[in-house]
Write a structure and sequence with these properties.
Ubiquitin-like (UB roll), 27 strands, SH3 type barrels, 512 residues, five-stranded antiparallel sheet, eleven-stranded mixed sheet, Leucine-rich repeat, LRR (right-handed beta-alpha superhelix)
Length: 512
């Protein structure tokens, strides 16, 4: 196929639909299509984006697409190979009025995943300032179809003081372009490449010591690629790798991650990591202070004690995660108290997130906040909320009373031969339904209790659970196939003794 006919597209090139920079895909085929005259470009569209097939048409396969209906054939004139970064900057900032959509897009990346508006959006004073690109320090050209940096000297002359650049949703894919960009913009410190599909091939490139924050969210990044680029980005303070479908942290020797001597924050949220052994490979990143692991598939946490030091002989005293202060574990599958207790072993840990895990969800038999506060003796921030001295004191008192009330002994870590210690080990799960006419409308509660809990203790708990002031209760157990609930009369008898096990439903009524 001639270059003229193909409009100089190449296989693997990132393109967008003409007139729609948000509909982005990758060129997978160039050439004729049976039964259709002229030249065609086969495109595999990101996230489907209105595709029609999987790369095959009328029984012939032209290429293999990512999805069953993510591909389509388009005329070269219906596609755009993008524009240069200088052209995009001129289009974005040499205007007299910003649309609301443009204002909404102009933000800087924050580690809390919140949009922080940059200072130059919207005012006449700022507009005057933007007429002089020399003073531009932050810029966003998200979803503008940017595919190249243009002549490096032109970019350097246009925005000589640019420190933050947001390239979200553009057409970059090759690392030499990124290297040239960082070299041309010496003051650049923050580079956001979110939603650019980056290739895994990395040629040798110079050290890019100016970049402090690199954002590679949803870029198709593997850890093998991270290992390839870490020498170039050796001075990173923050590395964001959200939504890359990462499952394993593959190091050259299969052991610990090396380098990144200045890395303070590593964001691995919304990936597919399901084994804590992968996280242990990060143990000796000496400067690491924040590790974001929300929305993965982790089932437990174990402090990596007795690990061999990976460093030189003089580094024999290295401590795993010695400077880690923030560990975000929300929305995982952690269901063990032993995992909560393990967090106490991290030397510097002060900020923990456990929300949306079974262990921290009382509706699933997990622990309420006060129990977590009591068990995490050093934590100062839990699930985004500060733990005040008063809350800690009251939580520890309530937890001690709860253990004494139920006769619960402190859980101790089990040996490796006996398997993981489950949070609910030895407890039974029962559902409590409040039906008394004077009690008001109450939602049913599911609680986990020791089988030795007496009926009398359960009555007292129900009065507390449902806030039944000055109301004496009686309890009935509902049994499948029995139309009349059975009254639980003897206060001194235990749940186990009356045959109540997990899954039972207890009806809470008021005494007549």
């Amino acid at each position: 196929m001639s270059a003229a006919a193909g409009y100089q597209f190449r296989l693997g090139q990132r393109v967008h639909a003409a007139g729609d920079p948000r509909r982005v895909g990758t060129v997978r085929y160039l050439g004729p299509v049976d039964g259709h005259a002229g030249d065609w470009v086969g495109v595999d569209w990101d996230d489907g984006a209105g595709g029609k097939h999987d790369g095959s048409l009328a029984g012939r396969r032209y290429f293999v697409a990512a999805g069953d209906r993510s591909a389509s054939f388009a005329r070269p004139t219906a596609l755009s190979g993008g524009i240069s970064l200088p052209d995009a900057l001129r289009l974005r900032y040499r205007v007299h009025d910003f649309t609301k959509e443009e204002q909404d897009e102009m933000y800087v990346f924050s580690t809390s995943q919140k949009r922080v508006s940059v200072e130059f959006v919207g005012t006449d004073k700022v507009q005057e300032k933007l007429n002089n690109f020399n003073e531009l320090t932050s810029a966003s050209v998200s979803y503008m179809g940017v595919s190249s940096i243009g002549p490096p000297d032109e970019l350097k002359t246009l925005v000589p003081n640019l420190r933050l650049l947001d390239l979200t949703g553009n057409l970059f894919s090759q690392w030499p372009d990124i290297s040239s960009l960082c070299q041309a913009l010496a003051p650049l410190e923050v580079l956001n490449l979110t939603n650019n599909s980056m290739e895994s091939d990395v040629t040798e490139s110079p050290r890019l010591e100016n970049i402090r924050i690199l954002v590679l969210n949803n870029c198709g990044v593997t850890w093998e690629l991270v290992e390839k680029i870490k020498l170039s980005f050796a001075c990173l303070n923050e590395l964001h790798l959200m939504s890359n479908k990462l499952k394993m942290i593959m190091t050259p020797d299969g052991k610990f991650v090396q380098g990144f001597s200045m890395l303070r924050l590593l964001n691995l949220e919304d990936n597919r990591i399901d084994s804590w052994d992968e996280i242990v490979k990060l143990s000796y990143l000496r400067s690491l202070e924040q590790l974001h692991l929300n929305k993965n598939r982790l089932k437990d946490v174990k402090y990596p004690s007795n690990l061999p030091s990976p460093g030189p002989p003089g580094d024999a005293a290295a401590v795993p995660f010695e400077n880690l202060k923030v560990l975000l574990l929300g929305s995982n599958e952690i269901d063990e108290f032993s995992s909560v207790d393990s967090l106490n072993l991290f030397p510097s840990l002060m900020d923990v997130r456990l929300s949306d895990n079974p262990v921290a969800d009382p509706t699933k038999g997990g622990a309420p906040r006060f129990v977590l506060v009591a068990r995490l003796g050093k934590v100062k921030i839990l699930n985004g909320s500060e733990v005040s001295p008063r809350e800690r004191r009251e939580s520890e008192i309530r937890f001690a009373e709860l253990k004494a009330f139920h006769g619960i002994e402190d859980e101790k870590p089990t040996s490796s031969t006996s398997g993981p210690q489950k949070m609910a080990s030895g407890l039974i799960s029962i559902t409590l339904k409040c039906v008394g006419p004077s009690m008001g409308e109450k939602q049913p509660l599911t609680k986990k209790l020791p089988p030795a809990t007496t009926i009398g203790k359960l009555k007292s708990l129900c009065e507390s659970f449902f806030k039944l002031k000055d109301i004496k209760v009686r309890l009935f157990v509902e049994e499948e196939g029995c139309p009349v609930p059975q009254l639980l009369e003897e206060d001194t008898i235990s749940l186990m003794e009356v045959g109540i096990g997990s899954g039972a439903t207890i009806v809470v009524d008021e005494e007549s």
